[in-house]
Each structure stands twice: as structure tokens, then as C-alpha cells.
Amino acid sequence: MTSGHIEVRGARVHNLKDIDLDIPRHELIVICGVSGSGKTSLALDTLYAEGQRRYIETFSLQARQFLERLDKPEADRIDGIPPAIAVKQHTASRSNRVTIGATTEAIDYLRLLYAKIADLICPTCGLRIEKHSPQSAAEQIAALPLGTRVMICFEPQQGASNPLTQFQSSGFVRVIADGQVLNIADAANGSFIDLHVVVDRLIIGQQDLIRLRDSIETAFRHGEGRAIAFADVSVAAGAPGSAVQTSIDGKNWPRLEFSTRLECPNCHRLFADPDPRRFSFNSPLGACPTCEGFGTISDIDLKKIVPDTTKTIRSGAIAPWNTPKHRHELDELLALADDYLIPVDVPFNELTEEQLRLIREGVPERKFGGLTGFFRWLDRHKYKLHYRVFANRWRSSRTCPTCHGTRLNEEALAWKIAGLSIAALTGLTIDRTLAVFNSLDLSVQRRSIAQNIFDQLNQRLHFLIEVGLGYLSLDRPLRTLSSGEAHRVMLTSVLGSSLVNMLYILDEPSAGLHSKDVSRLVQSIRRLSSRRNTVIAVEHEEDLIRAADRLIEFGPAAGDSGGQITFQGPLDQMLKPSASLTGEFLAGRRGISIPEKRRPTNHGWIKLMGARGHNLKNVTVEFPLNTLCVVSGVSGAGKSSLVQETLYGAICSRKSRDCEPPPLPFDEIVGCGQIDDCILVDQTPIGRSSRVNPATYIKAFDPIRQVFADTVEARTHNYTAGHFSFNVEAGRCSACQGEGFLTIDMQFMADVQKKCGQCGGARYRKEVLAIKYRGKSIADVLAMTGREAFSFFRGQPKVQARLKQLIDVGLDYLQLGQSASTLSSGEAQRLKLAAHLSAATKSRTLFLLDEPTTGLHFADVVTLLDCFEALLSVGHSLIIVEHNLQLMRSADYIIDLGPEAGDDGGQVVACGIPEELARSTASHTGRYLSQSLINAFAAS
Ligand code: ADP
Ligand code: ADP
Ligand code: ZN
Ligand code: ZN
User: Fold this and answer.
1) What angle do CA 758, 763, 764 make, to 5 degrees?
2) Residue 203, Cα to own-chain centre: how many angstroms?
3) Which phi and psi (to 5°) does residue 48 adopt?
4) CA-to-CA separations, 832 to 839, 850, 879, in angstroms, rounded
5) Rounded to the nearest whole angstrom, what is the distance from the C-alpha of residue 761 to the centroid of ligand 1?
6) Ligand 1 site, residue 89, Cβ cutoff 6 A
7) Dihedrals φ, ψ of 138, to 5°?
8) Please, what is the Cα angle at 238 between 235 and 243, to 5 degrees?
9) Rg (alpha carbons) of the chain, rounded to whole number
10) Is the pTM of this model over 0.85?
11) How far apart are CA 438 and CA 547, in angstroms?
């Protein structure tokens, strides 16, 4: 097929309005438009879904039988679609075992590399261990200075009866016995502690390599794979074996030892041959035996078991034994306390070490297992969920003491490249890892063995650096990354592929990236399309929009008022007056004007002192209250470490609230009295469950169900609010249990979902759907957008009050019943904000937000700022981690972290109002902000 286009006719997925579209192949296409306008519906739910379906068609018949069950995207036809690959937001794994290295396959190549070229250093002696062949040993000996006298020997096996006579008959002439060279016949009757049989004596430079090699081979054969060479020179550093001196006939001879096995020449510890699996914590060959490769172990934690040490044992100091079920343990302890002198009526913190030991370890002769025995018993029953949960309440995890968190066993860690174990290497930043490889001093031979592996590794490390992640380490679990970072890690696997004629669909690749790093990302995405691939990016970032061959804008608004193509064409046309909404913003004809007046920072401050978590360099930061305060800085500068991981926990601890995990280390926090509450609105997905949706999340669904239960019809059937819940047996469809769809196990591929045949996706029983309020069923209501529902429920203040929150955060276009798992991270975050709005009406609340503009079009940012304005006007405070220049221009105060990422960041570079920050020469953000302010000024 020569057609250069992907042809879409009559696409109607979600809100798409019968769209016709021709997309030229092998170009970079950026889809833009306000949030909820239909970008994802086209890119992922139409194009990608169809590409994937076509791809499955090429599979076996057996695979295809599932295909028929895959819903076709709703469209008249879609032609010319290449095999598709999508990089979606937050598809990252939650497991600790999935690291950056694993996702990019860099770790697989590193394991190969270690198996091929690493040096083995004995963990006990620190000596380098080599495995020798007669040839390699001969080469090393031949390299000694010319004229050196050498004796090649072996040590006879222990226990052989009268060995010397036997060696004599094999033709050996001399032995070295306890430091003396003797004729073997003379030594035959003696008994010696230290005995070597001499195979050959030679002088370097006088005999050829073949003789040397043969002699060593003989020594290996008789010495069980071990040969010893005594040389009469002082051995240069780096020579094999321990340069142990042995006195022979009154003279000191350095002793060199060679082995055909991996054996320490000093302590004779044996090592297994290297194998990539030995460098993997997922393999029993490589995993630390103590923690089984987790890097942490969980112990019973006395602090949790005895939360209040001023209590006495009798009054229930030991919390797990206060439950009726386990009370008998306490009774046993009380019964034997007298005999073992354990005071049960004094505060727990007055017990002696010895008394505590008895409580911990028990008294076997009285069949009392103590805490240890008790938890062992619980462990044996951990197949029962409630025992497992119960047991975990009293434990806490700590770094594994054996492997110190490296997850590998001692032997795996003994192999080094450039002096670094594989764990140490993967713990370096990716920038440094690459530097280590570049400065590696390898023999030509070794380099050629590993050339292919190096190429693969270099390529992967380069891609990670290109997408702006050089400050991370390969061993970082994806779980601990921000969603933008994780997404860009996934992106590298695509950038590295050499496939051509593919369709790549990228969902907001620039999320979380500082303006400074966007241009490199743009280049690598361009390269992908220049390799004869079609690349479609859903994106709001100005640089990427400007780099596109063609732009497609969706609109005009969100949800039902969107789903149309409002512009398509190249950039220069987009920029023409009135051509497109995006173009208006790009050309500066629309925008957020710079606020005339910024809110003053005289409403008090919260001061955080001595923050030192992750890369933070013992910083003291003051955050103004009742303002829009932005924390900026390049990706990896330490923004989340400061705001989410330190400040939030620090405030919680001040407010005596639990915070999991606890805050990173800091010295002191002051000023918390000026706020009543602190709410962290991060980007973690709201839930994987399809049972969570905007209506349930903002608690609008309860009053809505009540409205239905109050109808006359419902009352005549005795239906309660419960009947209108898709979580309750009574009213939900029994085939799909209220999910609305069935999940089909595709066995070898990701599961697919198919609309439930019985309820047609409505989720409810027919009888329940027959109940109407103002002509609509409960399922009809779930299909309404927030805005539609708001006007529909006029006269129902309880429902409207809740829905108002959705409108306030600009999510009025979401369908009430849309599953939370289909929301973008930006939408999820604004939904969380909506849910908190009502709770925060009375108290002075500090909101901490993480990149709330993710997924937002310029026009959406305007709505978001209005929402912030509303919060500030009633006395709340906002601290926002953000890269978006448009939002930064509107800030009252900016705290810029950096100057760079990782170890080169973690400091406060500059702070002040945007104009002040723009003047800072030290700050990357300042530079970009200054340009942005000039542009905005010029446009206004
Ligand atoms: P964008 O990507 O432009 O933000 P989307 O394509 O995600 O917009 O959404 C367009 C419209 O389709 C919105 O009204 C949204 O609520 C709706 N929508 C998106 N995904 C689903 C879904 N899985 N089920 C039902 N409606 C959806
Ligand atoms: P930002 O939010 O500015 O992008 P972060 O605070 O996430 O930056 O990261 C700052 C530094 O701390 C980076 O070098 C990062 O690798 C490191 N870091 C962040 N989280 C962790 C973690 N859970 N474990 C180890 N290092 C971390
Ligand atoms: Zn361990
Ligand atoms: Zn059903």
C-alpha cells in the first residue's frame, strides 16, 4: 500500500463527533486542545486501539479467537494504520523490583557485562582472583624481568600415603621442604609441614614459552588445579597471587600462585563461575540470603508493640496481647512472672535488659514462647489474611543488615568493574555510570569481548540522559519516581527501538520536565519520526508544539462541547489570527496577563530548617502563607523531596497526625500554628478500581442515590438508596457485578475489557433502571457530565453543592460515572482537590500540590488559576511544585531549587517574586521566566 495516510472516517469514540481525518505517515504530529476535548479519545482509544487490533490479526488462529471479542473502536473505517506502540501515563509498576535498569533492560546488559569482564576481588582478603590456564599463567610468568630464576611447583595432596616415593617414580627430582631445597630421595622419609614438589626450574628469557606452559600444566595436574611459582625477584605490584615471601635456603622468594579454579590464593575460598543470573536479586543464585533480594527485612518492633511504655505489663503494656484472642499469652506471662522475677506492676520502661529478654525470647521450660514465639506462630498462620494484617501491625522494616540494601549476596558483590560492584554501579547517577564506562581502562581483547554489550548499554544510558533523567540511578524503583519521570523512562525504551514504519503514540512526554530540558527531548522524538515512523504526541508543551510537522487541535471545549477538530495544519497557519485557540496563546494574543499586583507575603511564614533528605543540602526554607507560592527547579532538583517528603510530614508531625512514610530528616519547623490543616494533593492515581468515579469520589453519589430512593416509584417497590449502588448485590447487574464490563484474560497479552452483554454496560438490573427521576435512570445520570448533572439536579441543593466542586476545579466535563482509572494524572489531581474543597471551608488549610498543570492546555491553566484564587480569597494557602511558566508568572512568590539535578542540586538558588527571580543569573528557571515575562509583557 503506497498511501501515505492513516485515514479515519466517522470516529465516534467517547465524545468524538463523527470525525474524518487524514494523518500523513512518517511525520511528527502533535495533538493539542483543552483538557477533555477528545485528544486521548482519538490518539489512544481510536488509533492505538485499532493499531493493536490489527496487530493481533497477524497472530495465530488461536490468538485470533480472542480478537472477535475485542470491541472495535467506534468508527466507520480506519485504514492504513501501522502497528502501534503507545507510551501512556502512569503505567509504571508498583513493585520495588521494577527499577529503571530493569525497565530499560540496561540491567540485563550490565549483568552480562559483569559475567564477562568483571574482576573478582576476594571479599575476605581483598586480593584479585583469576582463573588460569597453563597459557595465561605462563604468559604472566614470562613477563617477569629477564634473568629471573623461577621454580614451578605444586603442593602434594594431603593424606596420600607416602607420596614422595610416588612422585619420585613419576620422575620429579626435587622438593622444597620447610624452606630447604632437597633431593626427593633424601626427603622421602621425613615429615614436613610445608612441602612443594618442584616440576621445573628455569630462567626467564632462556627457555621458550612452550616449556613453561608444559611445566605449569604438569603442576596443575598434580596439584589439583593449583600451581605455585617461586621467583627470585621482588614482584611488581599487580602480579598475580599474594606476593607472599617464602624463605628458601635462607633467601626470600616471592611466591606466586595460580589456580584453574576461581580460588583465592590466600584464603583458598572458592567462587562459582560468573553467570548473569548470579548478578540478579531475582535469582536465588544472586539474591542476598537474609532478605531474599528485597533489600529490607521486617522485624517485630518493640516501639509498636509497646506504644506506651509508662503502662505496666498487667495493665496491658504489650498491645498485641490486649486482644481477647491473644490474651492468653499475657496470662501465661503473668503466671510465670513471679518465678522469673519479672515485675508486672511497674512501668514497662523500668524493666531491665534481662527481663526484656525473657519477654522477647520466652521461657521454654514453661512452654512460654515470648514475643518471638508468638510472632512465629502468627507467621505460620499468615495464609489467613487477618493474621497477616495483625502481624504486620507490629512490625517495621529496616535495611537488610547482611547486604546493606544492595539485595545481592556477598559473592555477587565481589565482582567489580572499575572497582565497583554491580550494586555500587547501579547506585550511581546515570551520568556518572556513563562516565565510568567512558574512562574504563580495558585491554583490547576484553573490550572486543564486550563491545556489543557496551554499545547496547551506552545507547540506553544516552537515551535516559536525553530525556533528562541523567540524575537518577539505575537501581531506583519506578515506584519512587514522579509520574513524569516514570513516563520518560518508558519513553526511552521506545526511543531505543530500531523499528521502522511504526505508529508511536506518546501521551504528554514532557510532563514534569523543566523548560531547560525540553529541547533535548524534542530532538529525540524528532529522530524517532525521521526513522520513517509516524509519531503522534498528545502534548501542551510549547516547544514540542512548535517542533511538530503538523498540529491537530481538538475543541472547542470539553466533553460534549468538544470532540471536534478545530484546527489542523502546520504551525505557521496555526499562528494566524483566529485560526485556533492554541495559536492565539502561542502567538501571545491571548494569555494570562501578568497580575497587576501580587499578593503580599506578610501573612506569616512557615520556616523549615535543616532539611537534608535525598539530595537536599541542609537547607532552610521559608514558605509564605496565604499566597500562591511556587517551588520550581529542574527535574531532580529536590522539589518533591522538600515539599512532599519533608515539609508535609514535618507539618503532620506538628499536628500530631500520622504520616506514612515519615518525613525525611530535618532539624526544626516553626509557624505551623498559623494553619489548621495541611493537605497533600499529589499525582498518585486515585484508584485502579472501576468502582471509583468522580461522583463517588466527591461524595455526590450518596445524595444522588437518595434522590432516586425518594421517588414515589422507588418507594412503592421498597427500594432504598442501596439499590442504586453498583456495589450492592440488590440493584446491580449480576453478570458483571456492577462493573459494566467483563474482563477477558488474554493469557499471553494484557487483559482486555468487554462491555457486559446482560446490562449493556449500564451496571444495574432492569428493574432498577426502570426507576426514573425527571425521566432519567440512575445509569443515565452516571453518563451525564458534571455540568449537565448540575443543571439536571436543580432544586437538590445537597447534590448541587457537591457537583459545584467539580465545576470549580474545571472538571465539569467529566462524566459522573467515568472510572477513575481512565483519568489523566492532572485530572486525578484536580479531582482530589475538588474532594478537599468542601472539607476546607472552615479551617485555614495549606494545600501542597504537585505539578497541577500536567495535562492542561493554556486555556485550562486559566481555569485552574481561578480555582486557586478562590481558595486564597477565603484564607487558604498554596504551595505548588511546578514547571509551567504561565503559572509561575502568576505566582506571588517563587522558591527555586537547584542549580542542577541530583547531587548538584538540593539548594535554594533564588527566591522572591517572579520579577526578582527573573533577575537571578544563577537560576535556570530565572532565565526562562525572564523570557516568558518579556513575551507576556510584549503581548499585553
Ligand atoms: P483529552 O485527552 O482531550 O483530555 P479525552 O479524550 O480523555 O480528552 O476525553 C474526551 C471526553 O471523553 C471527555 O468528556 C471524557 O470525560 C470522555 N471520556 C474519556 N475516557 C472515557 C471513558 N473511558 N469512558 C467514558 N468517557 C470517557
Ligand atoms: P524533583 O522533585 O525536583 O524532580 P526529587 O526531590 O524527586 O526532585 O529528587 C531530588 C533528588 O533526590 C534526585 O537526585 C533523586 O534521584 C533523589 N531521590 C528522590 N527520591 C528518592 C528516593 N525515594 N530514593 C532515593 N533517591 C531519591
Ligand atoms: Zn539482604
Ligand atoms: Zn452487566
Assistant:
1) 85
2) 60
3) -65, -45
4) 11, 12, 16
5) 16
6) no
7) -60, -40
8) 45
9) 36
10) no
11) 32
Cβ atoms of 769 and 777 closer than 8 Å: yes
Cα(298) to centroid of ligand 3, in Å?
A: 11
Nearest to 215 by CA among 154, 284, 292, 166: 154
Cα 290 to Cα 86: distance, rounded to the nearest angstrom: 39
How many Å apart are CA 330 and CA 323, to the nearest integer?
10
Helix (H) or strand (E) holding 788: helix 786-792
Helix (H) or strand (E) holding 770: none
Closest CA to 54 of 86, 76, 78, 19: 78
pLDDT at residue number 767: 93
149-154/564-569 β-pairing: unpaired
Closest ligand to 826 CA?
A: 1
Q: What is the pLDDT of residue 266?
A: 84
Q: Write 384-391 long-range contacts (CB < 8 A, 24+).
A: 390/320
Pocket test for ligand 2, best of 467, 635, 641, 897 (most atoms within 8 A of CB): 641
pLDDT value of residue 885? 87
- The pick from 12, 13, 14 for probing ligand 1's pocket by mutation, whose C-beta has the most ligand atoms within 8 angstroms, reads 14
Q: Quick one: which H or E segment has residue 79?
A: strand 77-79
How far does the centroid of ligand 2 lie from the alpha carbon of residue 18, in Å?
Answer: 45
Strands 84-87 and 845-850: unpaired
Ligand number with the minimum distance to the CA of 423: 3
Q: In 3-state terms, what secondary structure has residue 780?
A: helix
Q: Is ligand 2 within 6 A of the CB of residue 477?
A: no
Compute CA distances 195 → 177, 181, 758, whole Å. Answer: 5, 10, 88
Q: Which atom of ligand 1 is nearest to the CA of 827?
A: 4
pLDDT at 842 (0 to 100)? 66
Task: Locate 126 and state its grid cell.
Answer: 581483598
Dist. CA 764 → ligand 4 center (Å): 7
Ligand 1 touching residue 813 (CB < 6 A): yes
Tell me the three-class secondary structure of 279-335, residue by residue. HCCCCCCCECCCCCCCCEEEEECHHHHCCCCCCECCCCCCHHHHCHHHHHHHHHHHH
Q: SS3 helix, strand, coil % of the chain, rounded to 5?
A: 40, 20, 40
**φ and ψ at residue 498, rounded to 5 degrees:** -105, 15
For residue 503, which phi and psi values (nearest 5 degrees)? -110, 115
Give ion ligand 4 contacts, CB < 5 A.
Answer: 733, 735-736, 756, 758-759
Q: Give distance in angstroms: CA of 645 to centre of ligand 2.
A: 10
Residue 559 Rama label (left phi>0; alpha psi -120 to 50; beta): left
pLDDT along the chain (940 residues), means of 10: 79 94 95 90 92 75 61 89 82 72 93 95 91 92 88 81 75 89 84 88 88 94 91 58 72 88 89 94 94 88 86 92 89 91 92 92 89 89 78 84 94 96 96 94 87 93 92 91 82 82 91 85 91 93 93 90 94 93 88 80 94 96 96 92 95 84 92 91 74 91 95 94 91 90 62 79 93 95 93 94 88 88 77 77 85 84 85 90 90 94 92 93 90 77
